[in-house]
Write a structure and sequence with these properties.
- The structure holds 2 protein chains of 2 kinds.
- Chain A is mainly beta.
- Chain A is built from no helices and 9 strands.
- By secondary structure, chain B is an all-beta fold.
- Chain B is 0% helix and 50% strand.
- In chain B, the strands form 2 sheets. In chain B, strands 2, 4, 5, 6, 9, 10 and 11 form a 7-stranded mixed β-sheet that branches. A 4-stranded antiparallel β-sheet of chain B has the order 1-3-8-7, with no helix packed on it.
- Classes of the chains: A mainly beta, B mainly beta.
- The A-B interface holds A 1, 3, 34, 36, 38, 40, 45-48, 51-52, 57, 87, 89, 91, 93, 96-104 and B 35, 37, 44-47, 50, 58, 60-63, 96, 101, 103, 105-110, 112-115.
């Protein structure tokens, strides 16, 4: 199972919106609405911020939103803040009843 | 509150094996699927294994470790385990246990432990 494809880095200025893509195949992202997103600050534990493509866990800022079209899922961060600077990973359930993570994206707030 | 605490990490020789534990509290452990995920130093997340609820009869593994890994659970002790053998330097990583989310279908990892570092080195 190959890792889902994410851009290595995305940057934006405070207040801007950025979008991170996550591209898979028909066996994972394209086949199921079980895509999730995780935020990981340096040296910290990953934190779930989006599940089932579009849903936010309680306590997660509504500046984070998710979507999916075909084989590509996306995470949008609106009103970018300094605290959003972190690594972001997507994950998808697969047709083998396993999971696969994305390659990860480093978000930089300029 | 949900708490997951991994243990068992350390230095292991190449060719050896590891057995990690994850003590769970703050939720009905037997009623949730559980996962193991690892992260090599400076690298991304890699999903390793999942075990189903209750009797843990369903187990699935990443292709990258299939044949070397076994996931298990002891609901009486609220503890998750992973055993990985024939270790190489590529298995050096922080190993996390994670709880499956609240939905009816396996879909996301809503709580994570703090991780335990395994270093494979002679």
């Amino acid at each position: 199972q190959s890792a889902l494809t994410q851009p290595a880095s995305v940057s934006g200025s405070p207040g801007q919106s950025i979008t991170i893509s996550c591209t898979g195949t028909s066996s994972d992202v394209g086949g199921y609405n079980y895509v999730s997103w995780y935020q990981q600050h340096p040296g910290k534990v990953p934190k779930l911020i989006i599940y089932d493509v579009t849903n936010r866990p309680s306590g997660v800022s509504d500046r984070f939103s998710g979507s999916k079209s075909g084989y590509t899922a996306s995470l949008t961060i609106s009103g970018l803040q300094a605290e959003d600077e972190a690594d972001y990973y997507c994950s998808s359930y697969t047709s083998s009843s396993t999971f696969v993570f994305g390659t990860g994206t480093k978000v930089t707030v300029l | 509150q949900v708490q997951l605490v991994e243990s068992g990490g350390g230095v292991v020789q190449p060719g050896g094996s590891l057995r990690l534990s994850c003590a769970a509290s703050g939720f009905s452990f037997s009623g949730y699927a559980m996962h193991w995920v690892r992260q090599a130093p400076g690298k991304g997340l890699e999903w390793l294994a999942v075990i189903s609820t209750h009797d843990g009869s369903r187990k699935h593994y990443a292709e990258s470790v299939e044949g070397r890994i076994t996931i298990s659970r002891d609901n009486s002790e609220n503890t998750l385990f992973v055993h990985l053998n024939r270790l190489t330097v590529e298995d050096t990583a922080v190993y996390y246990c994670a709880k499956e989310g609240e939905g009816d279908h396996w879909s996301a990892f809503d709580y994570w432990g703090q991780g335990t570092l395994v270093t494979v080195s002679s």
